[in-house]
Design goal:
By secondary structure, the chain is mainly alpha-helical. It has 17 helices and no strands. It is a multi-pass membrane protein. Keywords: Antiport, Cell membrane, Ion transport, Membrane, Transmembrane, Transmembrane helix, Transport.
């Protein structure tokens, strides 16, 4: 334990003092974290002996994602979002279902040995985008505000929307005993209603209550400087835990709660969010290091050509074509549509879904999870290395186009 702690502590320290410089290079943080875990893990140097089982990996990824969703939503510019709300609405209500359908069609061709339900599970697992991996894009002021906020809201809500869809497909798979589990249609509607409805109610309700309590405490001078950083962190985890306990989607609760928290805090939100963002970054480092050491290390050599090809398609055509189509008619250039289509990275949400599926012991669970792992790995590399160069390219093209549109 102490050896692991020493290695992780030294790595976090070194990365934190050079993070600003690395952010200006094509190297994304997740690439560094996963590579570090892979190199230090059992496959290569075997210095980092991480003994993390599937359930622990899921918990770590869930808590990281919940906190990132809350803080990213709180930082959202609601003014820009209100003016360009058509983008996330189209991406979520039309683009997301199209992505799942297109992923299902490609999966039926690529994985003939899988049942249609197993293919649908793969398509759903890889449909949501990752808020943490997309942070380099959605926080970069060089990217137009409508694109930043559109991608931010999409990544914040699509994983929560995919949770009930995933559970519906899992519920449709006949149990090993062969016994029926009641009315499937009724179960599906119940899952959707609970996941989304409870998530919205808890996220907005708890945040509204907490926000007014914090304001009252601040007026009376009850919050000391050292404790000012903790309310947001505690609120994010409380929203997630209470929602999950009640059977809803904690991810939807965290994102909607974060949006409301940012609106309530207004100009003071930066000081309240600082510690929560730092904690989220630290959890993200640990998650990706564990992913590199444990998951990637154990999965190397288990990929097939069909898994690799599907992973590439998932990150390109399956994602980019629906995005391009649903954005038709909006005042966006072709390069902006392609930019939004490409920046749909897969990460923490897909890790969580993969662990859920793995615990269900499906007949082809290994193929399903390996497809998710391969897609996430390619996304970490591809989106990590391309973020800054493509942002710079888009900014340059938009700047050149300004005299033409003036």
């Amino acid at each position: 334990m102490y050896e692991n702690l020493a290695i992780l502590g030294a790595f976090v320290f070194l990365y934190s003092i050079v993070s600003g410089g690395l952010e200006r290079t094509p190297i994304n943080g997740a690439v560094v974290f996963a590579a570090f875990g892979l190199i230090m893990g059992p496959i290569w140097l075997d210095l980092l002996k991480v003994d993390v089982n599937a359930e622990e990996m899921r918990t770590l990824a869930e808590l990281t994602l919940a906190l990132v969703l809350f803080t990213d939503a709180a930082n959202a510019n609601l003014g820009i979002l209100k003016r360009s709300s058509q983008i996330p609405v189209r991406l979520l209500l039309i683009g997301l279902p199209l992505t799942i359908v297109l992923g299902f069609g490609a999966g039926m061709l690529m994985f003939p040995e899988l049942t249609w339900l197993e293919v649908a599970i793969i398509a759903t697992m890889l449909a949501p985008t990752d808020a943490a991996l997309g942070k380099a894009v959605v926080t970069n002021k060089s990217v137009p505000g409508n694109i930043r906020e559109g991608l931010n809201v999409e990544s914040g809500l699509n994983d929560g929307i995919c949770v009930p869809i995933l559970f519906i497909f899992l519920a449709l798979i006949p149990p090993v005993t062969g016994t029926a589990e009641g009315n499937t249609e009724a179960l599906a509607l119940k899952l959707v209603g609970e996941q989304i409805g409870i998530g919205l109610a808890v996220g907005l309700g708890l945040t509204f209550l907490a926000g007014h309590i914090v304001k009252m405490a601040a007026r009376h001078g009850w919050i000391t400087e050292s404790w000012r950083q903790l309310p947001v962190l505690a609120l994010a985890f409380t929203c997630y835990a209470v929602t999950q306990l009640l059977g809803g989607s904690g991810f939807i609760a965290c994102f909607t709660g974060g949006l409301l928290a940012g609106a309530l805090a207004k100009r003071h939100k930066t000081e309240y969010l600082l510690a929560a963002e730092g904690t989220g970054d630290t959890l993200a480092i640990i998650t990706w290091v564990c992913f590199g050491a444990v998951v990637i290390g154990k999965s190397i050599g288990l990929y097939s050509w069909s898994i690799l090809l599907y992973s590439i398609l998932s990150l390109t055509v399956i994602r980019m074509l629906p995005v391009f189509l649903v954005l038709t008619g909006l005042k966006l250039r072709i390069d902006q549509k392609l930019f939004m289509g490409w920046f749909g990275p897969r990460g923490l949400a897909s890790i969580v879904f993969a662990v859920i599926v793995l615990n269900k012991h499906l007949p082809h669970a290994e193929t399903i999870t390996m497809t998710a792992v391969c897609t996430i790995l390619l996304s970490v590399i591809g989106h990590g290395l391309s973020a800054n160069p493509l942002v710079a390219l888009l900014a340059a093209r938009l700047k050149r186009a300004e005299p033409e549109t003036a």
